[in-house]
Amino acid sequence: MLNTMPAIRGDAEYVLVWLQQTLRGHEHPAIEVALEIARQRGVSVLVYHGLRCDYPYASRRLSRFILGASRAMGLTLRERGIVCRQLVQTSSEHGKGMVYRLAEKALCVVIDDHPTFVARAQADRFAASEHTPTLAVDATRLVPHSQLGGPLHVTKNFRAAHTAKREAWIGGCGDAGTVGSFPMADLPDELVELAAMSEADIDRLAASLPIDQNLVEVAHFPATRDAVKARLDSINEDFVRNYRWQRNNPAQPLGATMLSPYLHFGMVSPWEVVQRIEGSGAPRSYGYKLRDELLTWREWTHWRMTGRPDLLRYDTLPSWARKTLAAHADDPRNPLLDITQVLHGRTGDPVFDAAARCWLATGWLHNNLRMYWAKQVLRFMAGPEAAWAACCYINDRLSYDGRDPATYVSMRWAFGEARPGYRETAIYGLVMPKSPTAILKRAGMASWVKGWSTVDVSEVDCSNFYELKKAYL
Fold first, then answer.
1. Tag placement on the chain: N or C end, fewer CB within 10 Å?
2. For the residues 298-315, what does the mean pLDDT come to?
3. What secondary structure does DSSP assign to 18-81, as a single string?
């Protein structure tokens, strides 16, 4: 129940829920808040999601996933009796300013709150315009940032503050039902209902868009609610018992939930994951590391980038790291490679190349390998700034869970956001390098590397790197 109401117009026809990235129709705090406002004011709720084709890294891989997630959300909302419409922009003019047009008839606009990338920038612009009263609702983290206080400058302090609040939020927000049936004005003709389309229709739609059609979707991450449920079902007693022992081994099936793409796009909530861990039947002590990765480390990265959305920029890395890397910027690279060779895994480092091929082929890379991979890019690119930009570009372009606080902060670790090393080395200076020796000693990793070394991967055009890298420098 809302204790206070925003100062909102009285002649409106609906509460508009503008979702950019948290794409689910169940237990969605932004939708549930909108339903509560709508019930109190006697109007309907309209959930709107738009997909532009000119966003950075627009590709069939990402757009097909986003469309599938939005369709799955629409199906759930239709079952709940909530109107959901989408805009799929097919040209630079098609649907321009749609959220502003829809907001003209809205009591208020409720948005999902995100710390970085396009969703943050667009929401900030809309709110700053003072076009329509706007409420930002935290729908992607377990504990809303507003509940944590501050300042919380280090992980230890964040973990303590966050842990004290978790029990109150683990149950989730529930579904608030729906509102009564109220007449809704005619909606713009450009809007579509993805829930009325089949998966084959969505395939054809994604294939028709004016985007990068060479980077295609992969079958391993279907954007459906059934796929989410299957991932959640895998968090059973055996998984939870083994996670802390296998989480650093990409060759083992019990070392990753592979839910990060679904968390990134909001198809699954963190409390759904926690509830599976808690209900797995494994002793609570066995689930500690899995909970900590989800609730401390993931939410800590969101906390940091909410306050500093520019943490994806090289000049925000620790000054000591930038200084030592700059001192070794001219050290010989052998081999010295370009972005195309790095992205496609043509470096001669078997572990790096296997990781690069896996990432390109599947749209996902195990976090432990991703951290090793990022360290090695420093060895191949001409200078640390170019290496940082290459890491961010490849992560954001290839990965379903790219463009995310967790992935940016992971790469920051690789570039020195940790303790300095004990001795200075070529290229890295005092930033600690990482050897493949320990990785290859893990059970099954030699076979994993060998297997990926023979996999053919599609050729991807990297020419837009030189334009997009400016966002990271």
1. N
2. 95
3. E-SS---SSS-HHHHHHHHHHHHHT-EEEEEEEE-SSSTT-BHHHHHHHHHHHHHHHHHHHHTT
CA angle 254, 260, 266 (to 5 degrees): 135
The answer to whether 303 touches 425, Cβ cutoff 8 Å, is no
> Tokens at residue 311, please?
């943490």
Structure tokens at 9: 């117009």
The Cβ-side half-sphere exposure at 248, using a 13 Å CA radius, reads 11
What DSSP letter does each residue of 406-446 carry, written as one string?
A: HHHHHHHHHTT-SPPPSS-BTTTBTS----SHHHHHSTTHH
Residues comprising the chain, all counted: 473
Which residue has 């869970």 as its token pair? 401
CA distance 424 to 447: 33
Distance CA 87, CA 212 (A): 19
Please say whether the dihedral angle defined by the alpha carbons of residues 316, 317, 319 and 324, taken in this order, is positive or negative: negative
Instruction: Kindly state the tokens that stand for 130.
Output: 């003072």
Tell me how far apart the alpha carbons of residues 35 and 44 are, in angstroms, rounded to a whole number: 8
Cα torsion 28, 30, 31, 32 to 10°: value is 80
CA distance 226 to 242: 25
CA–CA gap between residue 430 and residue 318 (Å, rounded): 12
Q: How many CB atoms are located within 10 Å of the residue 160 CB?
A: 11
| Distance between CA atoms of residues 455 and 106, nearest Å | 52
Residue pLDDT, tens place only, 430-456:
999 999 999 999 999 999 999 999 898
Close Cβ partners of 453 (under 8 Å, ≥ 6 residues apart):
350, 353, 354, 357
Read off the amino acid at residue 397.
R
Contact between 59 and 397 (Cβ < 8 Å): yes
pTM greater than 0.85 (yes/no) = yes
> Given this model, what pLDDT does residue 11 score?
80
Q: If you average pLDDT over residues 130-158, what whole number do you get?
A: 92
Beta strands in 145-262 (DSSP E): none
Which residue's structure tokens are 């996670």? 243
DSSP 8-state assignment for residue 236: S
